[in-house]
C-alpha cells in the first residue's frame, strides 16, 4: 500500500482529519531525500576501482613504463594525498572530530592503500626489506595508528589493528579469524589471548579516560572476538584446561557487563554465546561420569529454556526501554 492509500483509508474511517492528511501528503511529496550512504558507497567503490585499474595498467605496461617511473608515480600520489590531508586538517581532539572536508576520509584511505602498494612493490621488485618481513609490516602499522588518531578515522584504525595482528602472526579479520589461524599451535593461542585482552583493555581505557572513546567499539569488537576464540581453542586443545576456561569465562563476564553499560546487543551476544560454549564444554569435561549421566538429560532442555528467556528479555537485560 502507498502512503496516499493509507491516508485515504484513515480519513474515510475518521481516524485522521482531512487537513492532517493533506499536510502529511504535502510533507511526503516535498521532503528531502538523503543520498549520503549512496555517495559514500560510490566513493569507496571509486577508490577500489582506481587502485585496481592502476594496478592492471601498470602490470600490462611494466616493460614500457619502467619500475622507477611507477614508484615515482605512486610516491607522488601519496605525497599529494598527505599534502591535502595536512593542509585541511582539523585541530587534534581527544573526542570525536567533525571533519568539514567530506573528501578527506576517502583521501586518507586512498593514501594508506597506496602506501601499502608502494611498500609491497618495493619489496617484490627490489627486496627492499630483505627477509625482515616484520619491519615491512611494522612500519605501516605504526603509521596507520598515528593517522587514525590524528585524523580520527575508524577505518584506518582497523587497518592498524590488523597490521599489529599480522606482525604478531595472526589474522584478526572477523570473517577469517577461524579459517586462517592455526589454533592448534600453543604459541598462536597464547598470542591471540594476550593481543585480544590487550585490545579489550585499550578499549576500556579509551572510554574511561575519554581518549577517542568512540574507538572503543572497534578495539572491543576485534579484541573480544580474538581473545574469546583463542581461549576456546586453548580450552579444546591444550592443558591445563581450567586456565583457559577461567580466562574465557572472565572475558565473557566482562563483555556482558560492558554490553549492559553501553547497551550493545553485539557485545551481549558475544559474551553469552562464547560463555555458553565454554560452560557447556567445561561441564562435560570436568564433571564426573555419574553427574554427566543425569546432566545430559536435563542440560540442553534447561539451556533451551534459558535461550528463550534471553530472547524475550534481551531489552530488559540491556536496560533498554520497550
Automatic annotation (TrEMBL):
InterPro entries: DUF2157. It comes from the Bacteria. Pfam families: DUF2157 (PF09925). The chain crosses the membrane at residues 41-59, 65-86, 106-124, 130-149, 156-177, 183-205, 217-236, 242-259, 266-287, 293-312. The keyword Protein transport does not apply. Keywords: Membrane, Transmembrane, Transmembrane helix. Residues 9-156 form the DUF2157 domain. This is DUF2157 domain-containing protein.
Amino acid at each position: 500500500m502507498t502512503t496516499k492509500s493509507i491516508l485515504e483509508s484513515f480519513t474515510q474511517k475518521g481516524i485522521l482529519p482531512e487537513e492532517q492528511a493533506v499536510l502529511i501528503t504535502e510533507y511526503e511529496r516535498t521532503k528531502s531525500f538523503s543520498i549520503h550512504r549512496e555517495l559514500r558507497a560510490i566513493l569507496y567503490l571509486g577508490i577500489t576501482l582506481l587502485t585496481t585499474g592502476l594496478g592492471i595498467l601498470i602490470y600490462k605496461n611494466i616493460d614500457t613504463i619502467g619500475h622507477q617511473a611507477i614508484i615515482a608515480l605512486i610516491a607522488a600520489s601519496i605525497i599529494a594525498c598527505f599534502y591535502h590531508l595536512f593542509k585541511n586538517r582539523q585541530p587534534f581532539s581527544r573526542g570525536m572530530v567533525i571533519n568539514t572536508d567530506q573528501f578527506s576520509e576517502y583521501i586518507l584511505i586512498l593514501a594508506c592503500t597506496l602506501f601499502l602498494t608502494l611498500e609491497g612493490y618495493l619489496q617484490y621488485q627490489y627486496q627492499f626489506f630483505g627477509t625482515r618481513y616484520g619491519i615491512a609490516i611494522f612500519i605501516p602499522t605504526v603509521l596507520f595508528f598515528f593517522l587514525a588518531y590524528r585524523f580520527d578515522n575508524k577505518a584506518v584504525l582497523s587497518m592498524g589493528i590488523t597490521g599489529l595482528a599480522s606482525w604478531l602472526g595472526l589474522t584478526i579479520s572477523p570473517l577469517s579469524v577461524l579459517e586462517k589461524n592455526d589454533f592448534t599451535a600453543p604459541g598462536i593461542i597464547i598470542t591471540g589471548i594476550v593481543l585480544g585482552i590487550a585490545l579489550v583493555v585499550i578499549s576500556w581505557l579509551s572510554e574511561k579516560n575519554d581518549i577517542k572513546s568512540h574507538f572503543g567499539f572497534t578495539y572491543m569488537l576485534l579484541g573480544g572476538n580474538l581473545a574469546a576464540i583463542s581461549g576456546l581453542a586453548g580450552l579444546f586443545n591444550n592443558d591445563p584446561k581450567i586456565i583457559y576456561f577461567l580466562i574465557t569465562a572472565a572475558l565473557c563476564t566482562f563483555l556482558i557487563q560492558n554490553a549492559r553499560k553501553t547497551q550493545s546487543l553485539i557485545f551481549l551476544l558475544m559474551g553469552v554465546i562464547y560463555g555458553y560454549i565454554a560452560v557447556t564444554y567445561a561441564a562435560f569435561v570436568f564433571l564426573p561420569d555419574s553427574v554427566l549421566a543425569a546432566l545430559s538429560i536435563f542440560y540442553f532442555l534447561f539451556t533451551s529454556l534459558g535461550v528463550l528467556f534471553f530472547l524475550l528479555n534481551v531489552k530488559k537485560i540491556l536496560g533498554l526501554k520497550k
